[in-house]
Amino acid sequence: MIIEDAVLRREWLVACRTDELQEKPHGVMLMGERVVLFRNEEGVHAFKDLCIHRGAKLSLGCVRDGNLVCPYHAWEYDGSGACVKIPQLPADRAIPGKARAYKYACKEEYGLVWVCLDSEQAAPMFALPEWADNSYRNVMWGSTTVEAKPPRVIENFLDVGHLSVVHEGYLGVSTHTVIGDYHVIHDEQSIRSEEIEVFQPDPDGSGQAKNVYYTYEILRPMTVKFTKRDKETDNKMSIILTVSPKDTETTIAYGILSFNYPMDLSDSEIAAFQDVIFAQDKPVVENQKPEDLPLDLQAELSLACDRMSIAYRRYLKDTGLVWGTA
């Protein structure tokens, strides 16, 4: 089922990682739509994964001389979506103007390929300063599949109270469950928390337990961030989580982890640890009821430590997002 939500269709959603898009066309499912991605000398392109001729799946074809070639009758589409070659027509016959692929807005940013299904009203892209800052090491994580609605996945990421419960031994301990009060800051860049003090048994891999300080940020409806800071060293680690609805039941999650201090782990080891943490969240998030995130703040009981999730629910209501909410 195609997801018809005006807000989501204006958002830039991740279709795949940049390194997943090689010489062959790459087919993905995004908001219930079949999308084909391909690269030529002009850059990356995204079309509806459908040939106008007989409905073949263009992602089963190939890229030839910069054109996307249909696997059924070898019609060729250039980067604009125009059909530039129909082998079944005589060379002197004009190609019908209707012979076009449906093109979506597409771009590469932060090691990811982003698609906007409503290119005429595309929302702004968020900023990630760490990506261009040479003092940071950036590590890609994902894609990871979650059988839950995107707002539930996002809200879990913004939830500081579960760290010592779901991630005990990694991101918290059962003897330190109390979360101090904090305020939420609204400005032009984002909606973010003040620093929240969290006790962790091994926050930086040194084996030394200490208090660290989390700042959570809402960047876009489907993209959020936290930054963890060690006040003793000013070491910072941030994670961007961005999610894309594959269809009405499944969400695909991607992350970018950024560190301003040396790490003895390889990129794959860092990503594997993030897999462990996310795997602890999945059974909880996949079984929350209702599946749609309640935007009525009276529908569920909230605490002061839930200020960021409350802010996220208010933000979604203000943006007009409907799908995945109740």
Topology of this protein?
Blueprint: H1 6-10, E1 13-17, E2 26-30, E3 33-40, E4 43-48, E5 62-64, E6 67-69, E7 76-77, E8 83-85, E9 103-109, E10 112-116, H2 129-132, E11 137-146, H3 150-157, H4 163-166, E12 184-186, E13 191-193, E14 196-200, E15 210-220, E16 223-229, E17 236-245, E18 251-259, H5 267-285, H6 307-319
Antiparallel strand pairs: 1-10, 2-3, 3-4, 4-9, 5-6, 6-7, 7-8, 9-10, 11-18, 12-13, 13-15, 14-15, 15-16, 16-17, 17-18
Give a written overview of the molecule.
This protein has helices at residues 6-10, 129-132, 150-157, 163-166, 267-285, 307-319; strands at residues 13-17, 26-30, 33-40, 43-48, 62-64, 67-69, 76-77, 83-85, 103-109, 112-116, 137-146, 184-186, 191-193, 196-200, 210-220, 223-229, 236-245, 251-259. With 326 residues, the protein is of the alpha+beta class. The protein folds into two domains: 6-121, Rieske Iron-sulfur Protein (3-layer Sandwich); 129-319, Naphthalene 1,2-dioxygenase Alpha Subunit, Chain A, domain 1. Strands 11, 12, 13, 14, 15, 16, 17 and 18 form an eight-stranded antiparallel sheet that branches. A six-stranded antiparallel sheet has the order 1-10-9-4-3-2. The mean pLDDT is 95.
